[in-house]
Amino acid sequence: MNNSEAFRAAVRACAKVILGNDTSPYEPALEILGFASGGHPVDDGDEADTGLVSVFGELTDWAELRPEEADQAEALMVTAAREWLAVESDQGAEARYFNRWQYDILGCERRSTHSDRS
To answer: pTM for the whole thing?
Structure first.
């Protein structure tokens, strides 16, 4: 199993825990962040590592930094996990998932793809 496959398997397991528990999804969402920085570094061109870390990182930060909104952030963690399991392994669907979650739902700033040189 290569790094990308191991990372995806670990994320899949966390997503299933998020969906299968009546407890907070915060800890398994936080584990996803740990995979990228610890046990499952991915640098083989798979966009899932940076995309999933971005999505779940924003959601866990939201819960931490605005505790009064933690319930809302956690509800979105469950939705993000459910949607990831539905699109995983379809490259086009994954790209749409990351785009929607990062920019439309979480409001991350889009990076410019061209230089502003005159």
So the answer is: 0.86
